[in-house]
Amino acid sequence: MQMNVSGGAPPPSSLQIISNIITWLISLLALGVAFFALYLQRRDKRPRLRLDVERKRAYLETSETDERGFFYVLETDVIEIRAANPTDRQINIVSTKFAPKTGEPILAPLHQAISDIPSHEIDSQSSPMMS
Asked: For the whole prediction, is pTM greater than 0.70?
C-alpha cells in the first residue's frame, strides 16, 4: 500500500538548523552592537560640568572708600573655581551652593556670577569663570 502525504515539507536537515541558529546569533549580536552604539551616542550628549577648584590669596576691593575716595583693598583667602563644558551643549547654572559634609548647604557669595557655560574643550590654562 502506498501512502500519500500532501501539504507537508520535508524535515529540515541538520545543516539547515545550524545555518538558522548562526543567522539568529549574528542578528542578535548586530542588535546588541546597535543598542550599545546608541547608548554611547546618548551618553556623549549629556552635559557634564567639570570644575577646577583652587584656594589662594587675592586682593579684593570693598565697597567702602577712604577720605580721598579710594576703595579699600583687602588681602584675603578666596576659592577660585574654573568651569569647563567638554560637550556640544550649553550648560545653564541656576544656583551655586557649597555643601559641607555636615549641616545645611551655603549659598555662595560670588564675586563674579555666571549663568551659562558654552561648549568648549577643557584647557588647563583657562581663565577663571568665577571666584
From this structure: no
